């Protein structure tokens, strides 16, 4: 059973994430991905970033948790949503961009490499990725949920086989330089 397959964990996450969104990250993405492009959001959770992305793109939300998908679909019946594992990304659909906000941190490094390769496969030629990560060199487990931290060079090395790095920078979410933004173009 996945952490987010438990209704109480979903409720707890929604409360914890209240007031946070990816607007700063999206402000960078719009410099690289044309308006009207198709974007897959990985790990949409409660769907906070979907309306922000929809101002610029045709958005498909995805999450591994059917609870998150069902909750969002009930409020937004017209939403394009997929139940997707961020590692295997089992879909035949192709996208111009893939976006995630502190989602890939829940994968092990080995799983992240699998996800990166699969992302490249479901992107159109010259497709763009935009991901955020917690910055650091550690792994933590909070109540069964994995948090993997990365440094810029580590991310550059992990992504460079499949993507040209367009932008990689530290930014502040809670504390100065606690986060990293990575934007890349499919090679």
Q: How many beta-strand runs?
A: 9
Query: Biggest sheet, strands in spatial order?
Result: 3-2-1-4-5-9-8
Structural class of the helix and strand makeup? Answer: alpha/beta
Order of helices and strands: HHEHEHEEHEEEHEE
User: Count of helical segments?
Assistant: 6
Question: What order do the helices and strands come in, and which of them pair?
Answer:
Elements: H1 7-17, H2 23-29, E1 38-41, H3 50-54, E2 58-63, H4 66-75, E3 80-83, E4 95-101, H5 109-122, E5 123-134, E6 139-142, E7 145-148, H6 152-159, E8 163-171, E9 179-186
Parallel strand pairs: 1-2, 1-4, 2-3, 4-5
Antiparallel strand pairs: 5-9, 6-7, 8-9
Q: Would you mind describing this structure in some detail?
A:
The protein is α/β, with parallel strands linked by helices and about 190 residues long. It has helices spanning about 5-15, 25-30, 50-55, 65-75, 110-120, 150-160; strands spanning about 40, 60-65, 80-85, 95-100, 125-135, 140, 145-150, 165-170, 180-185. The protein starts with 6 loop residues before the first helix and ends with a strand.
């Amino acid at each position: 059973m996945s952490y987010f397959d438990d209704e109480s964990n979903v409720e707890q996450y929604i409360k914890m994430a209240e007031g946070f969104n990816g607007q700063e990250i999206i402000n960078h993405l719009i410099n690289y991905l044309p308006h009207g492009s198709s974007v897959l959001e990985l790990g949409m959770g409660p769907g906070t970033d979907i309306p922000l992305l929809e101002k610029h793109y045709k958005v498909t939300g995805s999450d591994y948790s059917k609870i998150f998908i069902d909750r969002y679909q009930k409020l937004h019946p017209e939403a394009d949503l997929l139940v997707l594992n961020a590692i295997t990304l089992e879909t035949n659909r192709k996208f111009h961009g893939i976006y995630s906000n502190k989602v890939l941190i829940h994968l092990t490094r080995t799983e992240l490499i699998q996800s990166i390769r699969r992302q490249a496969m479901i992107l159109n030629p010259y497709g763009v990725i935009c991901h955020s990560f917690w910055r650091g060199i550690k792994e933590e487990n909070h109540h069964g949920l994995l948090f993997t931290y990365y440094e810029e060079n580590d991310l550059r090395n992990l992504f460079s086989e499949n993507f040209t790095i367009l932008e990689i920078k530290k930014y502040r979410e809670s504390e100065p330089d606690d986060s990293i933004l990575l934007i890349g173009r499919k090679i």
